Amino acid sequence: MRYIRRMRWFVLVLLAGYVAWQSVIASGSLEAVTDFRERTPYFDVLLPAGRVERSEQGIILNQEPVYIDVRLPVRAKSAALELKVDSSSAPLKLGIQTGEGFNFEFSGLPAETVGEFTLYRYDALDLTYVRPGHKLRFIISAPGLVTDSVVVKQATISVKRAPASLSWWQEQFMRLWN
């Protein structure tokens, strides 16, 4: 009888935690910013390293394409990447990996000039492909790139969290079990 009471409390606490998770934590969003000078918990350095060069002005692209890996700390519903470059930089195309291999989709959004910077944005409203390790891979392509003509100042990733589901709980249980 004593175990049944404890079990009821355990189930009640578990359900209350799940409801709090769904209504408060799981519906939140996250924003992270980097200047690519070093790895951060969310951003890797620009890859491949031989195509970029660090300078006092920012990161200079010497060849294209260049890739940005973004580590997601949570299961994401949508993500948006905003890239800030010098306004004197050559035009860019920003895209996201949409499947295994080199499948990328490029943004149709126009660049926006704000003072001495140009902002490029890619909105992935419904994430259908996430690389192993909960990573997104974005691509920076600069057709007709002239060496030292693109200077990247910073990148901002905004992630809207996907609600946790029972399959998420099963996944976590199996991860602990194994």
Describe the 3D structure.
This protein has helices at 2-25, 166-177, and strands spanning 29-34, 52-54, 59-61, 66-71, 76-86, 93-99, 103-106, 112-114, 117-124, 135-141, 150-161. The longest helix is centred in the N-terminal third of the chain and has 24 residues, at 2-25. The chain has one domain (29-161): Jelly Rolls (Sandwich), CATH 2.60.120.260. A hairpin with a 4-residue loop joins strand 2 and strand 3 (59-61). The protein is of the alpha+beta class and 178 residues long.
* Secondary-structure-derived class: alpha+beta
Which percent range describes the beta-strand content?
Answer: 35-45%
Series of secondary-structure elements, N-terminal to C-terminal: HEEEEEEEEEEEH
Oligomer: single chain
Radius of gyration: 21 Å
Quick one: CATH superfamily? Galactose-binding domain-like
The top-level CATH class is: Mainly Beta
- How many domains? 1
Would you tell me the overall average pLDDT? 83
What is the CA–CA distance across the termini? 32 Å
- Strand runs, count: 11
Key traits:
four-stranded antiparallel sheet; alpha+beta; Jelly Rolls; 20% helix; 178 residues; elongated; 2 helices
Brief characterization of the structure:
The chain is 20% helix and 39% strand. The protein is an alpha+beta fold.
Secondary-structure blueprint of this entry?
Layout: H1 2-25, E1 29-34, E2 52-54, E3 59-61, E4 66-71, E5 76-86, E6 93-99, E7 103-106, E8 112-114, E9 117-124, E10 135-141, E11 150-161, H2 166-177
